[in-house]
Amino acid sequence: MEIYPAVDILDGRCVQLVQGRPEAATVYGDPDAWARRWLEEGADGIHIVNLDGAFGRAQKNADLIRGFIRETDAFVELGGGIRSVEDAAGWLDTGVDRVILSTLAVRAPETIRTLADEFGSERVMAGIDARGGEVMIEGWERPAGSYLAWAERFESLGAGSLLYTNVDVEGLQQGIALAPVEELLFRVKVPVVVSGGISSAEDVRALRDAGAAGAVPGSALYAGIVRLSDLLEVAHAEE
User: Fold this and answer.
1) Can you tell me the distance from the alpha carbon of 237 to that of 45, in angstroms, rounded to the nearest whole number?
2) pLDDT tens, residue order, the chain (239 aa)
3) How many other C-beta atoms are found inside a 10 Å radius of the C-beta of residue 132?
4) CA 25 from chain center: how many Å?
5) What's the CA gap between 27 and 77, in Å, rounded?
6) Core vs surface per residue 171-200: b (16+ CB within 10 A) or e
7) CA distance 21 to 23
8) What is the per-residue pLDDT for 26?
9) What is the CATH classification number for the domain harbouring 116?
10) Active-site residue, from 8, 44, 52, 203
11) How far apart are CA 111 and CA 66, in angstroms?
12) How many Å apart are CA 9 and CA 15, to the nearest integer?
């Protein structure tokens, strides 16, 4: 199992949100410095979210992200503001290892097949942001149907992996909700990376034992509630 610390970027700064609300942002400073710190501490890769892109300002932070990719050989998965095949292809050509398609995947599902055919399914991750069992799109504002049904559809279209984010627990630093993760893992065969609520080594152990391929710690990591080294120790214990 792999650990990808979240580096969420808003207006050039590393932030953590609560329940996806920009007005609830806690600012932590330089995103490049944080990403490099997590790599130095042994992270398997970096999970970058261009929050400005997610809120409709797609080019904001682009130079910063490109610079980090150019200067490191880290595994990077990137989401936020990817609104078209061209947006996704541009990031993949820049050197992002895996793009995360969320709202776009729901609005134009065939985008997944198009990108998988061109770049390989392993570089296309479908984002499943779920609240109360329903996929949420457009900045987690609009429900779009069963998260399980969408997961199965994304897999059938050629997504090489899924990012499951439980919006109900995201940013609260109170632990994961395991049952919906287990249900998702039962329904699909592609690797599933889990985000939302990861606050302890026990959370990571539960996800690992359930069969998750990866985890994205965020708020609890930045707040010092949990150490990256402890998460990595549990995640890699099976290897």
Assistant:
1) 17
2) 999 999 999 889 999 877 666 676 789 999 999 999 999 999 999 999 988 765 555 566 788 899 999 999 999 999 988 999 999 999 999 899 999 999 999 999 999 999 999 999 999 999 999 988 999 887 667 778 999 999 999 999 999 999 999 987 775 667 898 999 999 999 999 999 999 989 999 999 999 999 999 999 998 999 999 999 999 999 999 65
3) 11
4) 17
5) 21
6) bebeebebebbbebbeebebbbbbbbbbbb
7) 5
8) 87
9) 3.20.20.70
10) 8
11) 23
12) 6
Which of 67, 108, 70 is CA-nearest to residue 88?
108
User: CA torsion 111→97→71→62, rounded to 10°?
Assistant: 20
Residue 37 one-letter amino acid: R
Domain that holds residue 60: 2-235
Contact by Cβ (8 Å): 82, 101: yes
8 is catalytic: yes
**Residue of 32, 44, 52, 129 marked catalytic:** 129
Q: How far apart are CA 77 and CA 59, in angstroms?
A: 17
Domain tally, the chain: 1
DSSP category for residue 122:
G
* Interatomic CA distance for residues 131 and 110, integer angstroms: 24
Q: How far lies 97's CA from each of 70, 132, 188, in Å?
A: 12, 30, 22
| Catalytic (active site) residue 52 | no
